[in-house]
Structures
1.
Amino acid sequence: MISFTAQDLTKSVDGKLIGDISEEIIGLETVDRAEKGDATFIGSVKYAKKWGDSKASLVFFSKGIPMEPHKGAALIEVANADLAMAKLLDLFSPESPNFETDIAPTAVIHNSAQIGENSKIGAGSYIGKDVIIGNNVVIYPNVTIFDQCEIGDNTIIWSGTVIRERSIIGSHCIFHNNVSIGADGFGYRPSEDGQGLVKIPHIGNVVIGDHVEIGANSCVDRAKFSSTILGYGCKIDNLVQIGHNCILGRFCIMAGSSGLAGSVTLGDGVVIGGSASINDNTYIGAGATVGAGSGVVGDVAAGKTVLGYPACDSRDMLKQWIALRNLAKN
């Protein structure tokens, strides 16, 4: 069982201990579900009122929130409780699944593939022709990596993921279960005789930068020409669709069930809310935010927040909603 003293945890987050406790901390939990031996977190004033009834032995709270220790419990003041929580979750994280052998006997690896030092490949995985896998890569069972792909150092690929041919993946990436990288983009045109649809071939690839994380069952389609690109540090939630020839800048965030049609460009630090949809050939400037459930049909200026369908300035949309609500009352 993992356990730490209050003093150990204080040092680990560069915090200030207020009060003291003798028992060791054996787990982390929300403030209203925590029991004796647990630590919890309070990052805003609205949750501070729950502390009085909490059974937690230790609470990490953001500086500036009025907090007092109660009997049998102590406090640790930190600059940011959410960031402290991230560090502690890492400390308390259980071990990942073990590999009995670095390369499972049932993995199928083409003899031209290059496997880096200390990399692991699980049972039932397939590594194609001329694939290059860096050092310390972890490929869990039943992953498929097709020909001529490159996988950077320290990347983790979970079961069910398929990486199609010629994809280039950076270092320190995490792909969760059933991610699809490099499938054909969605492209059809009416046939000349008007009796059906003609499939448009997609002959490009996908290029993903370092420190990118992609959630379960998300898809990144290959480009029609050149590359679909995800920049350094992008974080993609579950069930996200990124269409062909999209370009994402650095540190973009896309929440669950959101989607980009083909040839969308996101500047650095763009945030796309859950279930938002972005029309094809749209440009969203650096630092812009698209609210959850919105439908973006035109370009969005840098730093702007848009909301609704069709999406417009969030303040204007809120005024429209208030006006409609008032009309409904009448």
2.
Amino acid sequence: MASEELYFRRADLFSDESEGLPPETYALRVLGLNPYDLNDRFTLHNHLGFTAQAREAFYVSCWYLYKEGLETLDMWEAYGQDGVAICTRYELLHDALNGFQDDAHLGRVQYGSDHLTDRFNGMEFIFTKQLKYASECEVRALITSYDPLESGNRHFDLDNHPHPRPLTMNPRNPWVPDSKRRRIDLRSLVTDVVISPWAEADAVEEIGLWVRSKGFAFSAKGSELTNPATPSLAEWKKHKQFFSKLPQDSVVVEMTEATRSELDQFSKKISTLPLERLRWIYNQRWDILRLCAGDIPRLSDAQYLEAILRILDDRKKRGTSVG
């Protein structure tokens, strides 16, 4: 409101680490890879690592697709506890993006993977999120800004092994910004300003002054959830597990269990590898589990990590220092 600009955040800096990346099960299927073959695993990491760098060219502005009667306290708590919702219409936002010099895109985010079209398409991935975010009903505006000197190989380590994410040892070029801002015609874009049901009286007054000072024909209005029955923010946080539409428990990603035959084949294959290579595979498996932060990782991934640990433990018992 102050600068009359839209703010776009670089996609790899969102809290969701899977932002703009395909689900691993989808990538394996589309690329025709065997998840239990080491060479195929390297191929998968190469594709994921490259895609993770490519998403750094996407700068995103996130909007909520409002439908009358579907305003939620979940969204107010997450994005505007004592603030406002700036409202527009799809065609007005589309027109604003058309006025940029950037390559700009606008569309609804789709959730899950059923809609994906059996191809490895970065633009499709950036408009896809996990099912657990479906209640956000996101409309996403983005601008693209590619680094012309980006190699696309920052996910390779010193041994030329690919990783599913760029490595800190290979920093991006320093001129790549974390965000971008673009000037807009505020009065042509904004149709309403809605005040949080938890906003304090002085905040409501300040918001009203902002709207008037910017010359809008409308006045700021209160949320449709503002009424005597609305819980306070403290009450909502304490009891929201009974009313929230968002999942409160960890999400089970996949409970597929590896068979004994598959585990034996895996153990046989890696037991002949040099210790350095075995450590690398262990770190890769550990990263897969770690990237499931907040979720329950796949049972099969835990089984394969256990198989590697058993081999390392066996070597340790035979007097080999495994680090």
